[in-house]
Amino acid sequence: MDEIEQIKRDCLHKILTLYKKANAGHIGSSLSCLDLLIYTFFRRLLEGDKFILSKGHAALAMYVVLAKAGFFPESELETYYQEGTLLAAHPPCSGKLNGVVFGTGSLGHGLSLATGLAFSNKFTGRKFTTYCILSDGDCNEGSTWEAALFAGQHKLNNLVVMMDNNGLQGFGKSEDVINLEPVKEKWEAFNFEVVVAEHGNDFSSIDQAFRSLDKNSDKPKMIIARTVKGSGVSYMENKMEWHYLPMSDEQYLTAINEIQG
After folding, report:
1. Element at 130 (helix H, strand E)
2. Of all residues in the chain, what percent carry a pLDDT higher than 90?
3. What is the pTM for the complete model shown?
4. Domain extent listing, the chain
5. Contact assessment for residue 208 and residue 216, using Cβ atoms and an 8 Å cutoff
6. 2-260: CATH homologous superfamily?
7. Which of 113, 138, 223, 227 could share a disulfide with 166, CB 3.0–4.6 Å?
């Protein structure tokens, strides 16, 4: 995993630098799903596969990983959050950014879009896989569970969903806003094959979860990744305010020093 760990360090540095340059928030949201994004793009995605980030407020993490994976020049990242950029705070709907299939951000839409793609591929006999990352907040929305019912009913085993289960969302702890537990059993009841990655910010744990999936199952797949909001920056970890706050100069330097170890 040495190569992928170096990719993570590079991506972390770029994410923090671009957030500071833009004086923007949603840092904690990007850091909690970064490992899932890197693993998906560098260990899972094959030519023709599609990826949808339902938690669109973590768009910067996806942009950085897309650029690192060669979907567009890394120099394009310098336009993040600027007037006229394709790299807005949420993924664009224009279709002009390579690697971004749909614009997202209003929670609850991503799984429906991913399910539609998976169903289309199944219907036409194409052997592609659709990947989707959801947040806790996504799972508060009825449209997410409608899509889950559809995916289970139609045995969309070409759909792989990852839940960025960091336990926090815009208004507090997930268990206080809408308690999802027992979340594993809920997804199983919707006819998903479910595996839990107990350390969702660790590549080995994610890899083990994926390897535990039954390749012969006709069910859609769900990886519940127990992640940490703000993972990798000590003062951000498990703090709801880093769903919103930008960094001060001092906070930025502290974060950069921590990730450089």
Report:
1. strand 130-135
2. 95
3. 0.97
4. 2-260
5. no
6. Thiamin diphosphate (ThDP)-binding fold, Pyr/PP domains (3.40.50.970)
7. 227
